Amino acid sequence: MIPARAVAPERDAEPMTTAPAPLPALTPRTDVLDFLLTRRSRPAKTLTAPYPDRAVLETLLTAAARTPDHGKLEPWRFVVLQGAALNRLAVLTEARGVALGQEPEKIAKARASFDTAGCVVAVIAAPKASEKIPRYEQDLSAGAVCLALVNAALAAGWGANWLTGYVAHDPVFGAEALGLEAEERVAGFIHLGTESAVPPERPRPDVAALTRWMSE
Ligand SMILES: Cc1cc2nc3c(=O)[nH]c(=O)nc-3n(C[C@H](O)[C@H](O)[C@H](O)COP(=O)(O)O)c2cc1C
């Protein structure tokens, strides 16, 4: 008698699917709410060494990517800029400023933002073709990623600042400096580092004046 060959049931050949871990139930997190009520960016030019290392950055990027995204398109990505990459961007920022006819003062300021930086994450708005999700919503998600990254950094004790400037909107700079595709744009350059000075609070919006309550 020919022994039956051990054949694994077909379902075992299916890739293992792991259910996402259940989330904890919501409870009041007054420390987190206090943070959100007092959070404040740290001006990029006041950020110094030490800068977040790769392990820290991976945590901050993971927090930033935990952002609402209609249709799960992931219409954004990150370029982490350190060391010589920042020098390269500084030089190109000046060259593009001249080519674009920007004011010399504006060029110098834009260039300095890279010359004096030690760690910058470019959040790239990378829209996906979709019949359902408008580009506008995809860009909103990219903006939300920028704020999430700033807030994650601040919450972890790092200074953070969301900057843009003319280079962020310049497709030539995007392609040459960051390798962006034609439809991609820089949503924000998020400068990260150690704060050297605590900035004063800035005037905050009059939320009551901005809010209309509708109940019918
Ligand atoms: C899309 C976007 C682009 C910005 N670009 C610049 C910029 O290029 N230069 C600048 O000084 N501030 C810029 N800001 C403002 C800074 O991020 C500023 O520090 C921030 O508004 C402070 O906000 P906070 O005090 O609530 O953290 C930008 C803000 C946003 C939302």
Automatic annotation (TrEMBL):
Cofactor(s), by name: FMN
UniProt KW keywords: Flavoprotein, FMN, NAD, NADP, Oxidoreductase
Its EC number(s): 1.-.-.-
InterPro entries reported in the protein's UniProt record: NAD(P)H_nitroreductase, Nitroreductase, Nitroreductase-like, YdjA-like
Similarity section: Belongs to the nitroreductase family.
Amino-acid positions noted as binding FMN in the UniProt annotation, renumbered to this chain: R39, R40, S41, R66, H70, W162, L163, T164
Molecular functions (GO terms): oxidoreductase activity
Note on cofactor: Binds 1 FMN per subunit.
Protein name: Putative NAD(P)H nitroreductase
Taxonomy, superkingdom: Bacteria
Keyword Cell membrane: no
The species this protein was found in: Dinoroseobacter shibae (strain DSM 16493 / NCIMB 14021 / DFL 12)
Keyword DNA-binding: no
Region (Disordered): 1-24
Domain Nitroreductase: 39-193
